[in-house]
Write a structure and sequence with these properties.
Elements (H helix, E strand, L loop, with lengths): L5 H9 L21 E5 L2 E4 L4 E4 L2 H4 L8 H13 L11 H13 L7 E5 L2 H18 L7 E5 L8 H6 L3 H4 L9 E4 L18 H17 L4 E6 L2 E2 L5 E2 L2 H14 L2 E5 L13 H4 L6 E4 L11 E5 L1 H4 L21 H16 L2 H20 L5 E6 L4 E8 L4 E2 L5 H11 L2 E2 L1 E3 L5 E4 L7 H22 L20
Parallel strand pairs: 3-16, 5-6, 5-7, 7-10, 10-11
Antiparallel strand pairs: 1-2, 2-3, 4-12, 8-9, 11-12, 13-14, 14-15, 14-18, 17-18
Helix pairs in contact: 3-12, 4-12, 8-9, 13-15
Length: about 475
């Protein structure tokens, strides 16, 4: 392994355009980017041989871990057999098998139909179009509105962007698709009703009442669907209270509204079960998924649709078909990757491992940081966790420091951990390591986060009320 060549450095400076990234930071030929070139299990290596724990599974994606030759072998075999099959005209064998497998696993039931896409935004886009088209098929042409939650991220294609609740991402691309409406997020730590730390389901039901009030205000005859994540990513692993989710399901049933569970991150063991909605005892009408469907080995997403809804598009009349398609949706090699990946998740019981290891990591994070003046809360579900940072633990005062998250991300990376320091709602450190993470690696991850948070405390001038952990030693540098 070695540094980038001069031509690679120039191409990076002049030609590459990363997503959600200011390329000006890499526009100089002297820039030193971290280029990840190899992975194994829960660890990755950069072009200079430096080793990191991947505390974010790439991007909440590599659930089965890096270096899974079973998945790459399945893809290679499929590519050797036939590299591409048009989803507009022909089913491929992996598409057929994967659709049956997802229908068997999903909370939408074994008669579900699976519309395969290339990723999460595509899956949400398909789900929104299906919901609106279904309502029209039922004779409700005015049902065009979609309710989502504030601060929720649902993707960046125009339909998905419109229901996106992250204002900074949505602004600047208008006019957006009309009809998106947003309700407050049930956020226990900063509850709008009790001030925070809800003791029971009273506040959760108050938030659900906000959904009901919006339905009544807009008119239920105008609303096609409600979309939400069981555990919301934006804001930092904010767990939806099950009582809230159950009440929203009741409202959808009462008013003929479809419930879309966005499981692009929550699915495939990330929060414990196959899907987050199942873990909370709720059956949605449509499930969107992607990311860990293949553990990142190939781009693939899906909208899994309850059979009674999909039936509206199935007949002998060509005019009844869903007028939507994606050239690479359900690519045969991606479907082969997904089948191999699901087999690994099942055989190794990685969902159950996510539950137990997630509980362990949260306990250890609370033990290491529970009394730190800049830590408000450690929360999450399964191996989907966040540490919320505050100016003052006692008052829950928000921590608003310019460029602080960039500084903190660099502190974590220098110590050998890649994760996300984010402030789209409140500042948080997000953790979502591969489900194969070992106990030793989990301990290492906790130690690095604790060390970085103590460095943050020193930077802010807050004196921890506990003794700081010893500084984490750098991970070993891999041999060339």
């Amino acid at each position: 392994m070695s540094s980038l060549t001069t031509s690679q450095q120039q191409a990076l400076a002049e030609n590459v355009w990363l997503h959600f990234f200011q390329m000006g930071h890499l526009s100089s030929l002297g820039a030193r980017p971290t280029v990840l070139v190899r992975g194994a299990g829960s660890r990755v290596w950069d072009q200079e041989g430096n080793e990191y724990l991947d505390g974010l599974s790439g991007l909440f994606t590599v659930n089965a871990g890096y270096g899974r030759h079973e998945i790459t072998a399945a893809m290679a075999a499929q590519l050797d057999a036939i590299a591409y099959v048009s989803p507009f005209s022909f089913p491929s064998l992996p598409m057929i098998e994967l659709s049956a497998k997802l229908a068997a696993l999903a909370p939408t039931g074994p008669r579900s139909r699976v519309f395969l896409t290339t990723g999460g935004s595509d899956a949400v886009e398909a789900a929104l179009k299906i919901a609106k088209a279904y309502q029209r098929r039922r004779g409700f042409a005015e049902r065009t509105k979609v309710i989502a939650r504030r601060s929720a991220y649902h993707g960046t294609s125009m339909g998905a962007l419109s229901v996106n609740g992250v204002t900074s991402i949505r602004n600047g691309f208008g006019p957006l698709v009309p009809g998106a409406r947003h309700v407050p997020l049930p956020y226990r730590y900063r509850c709008d009703f009790c001030g925070g730390g809800c003791a029971d389901d009273t506040c959760a039901l108050r938030y659900a009442a906000e959904v009901e009030r919006l339905i009544e205000f807009e008119g239920p005859e105008t609303i096609a669907a409600i979309i939400l994540e069981p555990v919301q990513n934006s804001g930092g692993a904010i767990v939806t209270p099950p009582a809230y989710l159950r009440r929203v399901r009741e409202l959808c049933d009462a008013h003929g509204i479809l419930l879309i569970s966005d499981e692009v991150i929550c699915g495939f063991g990330r929060v414990g079960g196959w899907f987050g909605a199942q873990e909370m005892g709720v059956s949605p009408d449509i499930v969107t998924c992607a990311k860990a469907l293949t553990s990142g080995y190939a781009p693939l997403g899906a909208a899994i649709v309850r059979g009674t809804i999909a039936d509206a598009f199935v007949s002998e009349r060509d005019a009844d078909k869903l007028m939507h398609g994606i050239t690479f949706g359900g690519h045969p090699a991606a479907c082969a990757a997904a089948l191999a990946n699901l087999q690994i998740l099942e055989q190794e019981a990685l969902g159950e491992r996510s539950r137990t290891m997630g509980d362990y990591m949260q306990r250890e994070l609370r033990a290491a940081l529970g009394d730190h003046p800049n830590v408000g809360e450690v929360r999450g579900m399964g191996l989907f966790m966040a540490v919320e940072l505050v100016r003052d633990r006692g008052t829950r005062e928000s921590l608003a420091e310019e460029r602080l998250m960039g500084w903190l991300s660099e502190q974590l990376k220098r110590r050998g951990l890649i994760c996300r320091a984010d402030d789209r709602l409140e500042p948080v450190i997000q953790l979502a390591p591969p489900l194969v993470i070992t106990r030793e690696e989990a301990d290492r991850c906790v130690a690095i986060v604790a060390d970085a948070v103590h460095a943050l405390g020193r930077k802010l001038g807050t004196a921890p009320v506990m003794v700081a952990l010893p500084a984490a030693e750098p991970l070993a540098v891999a041999a060339d």
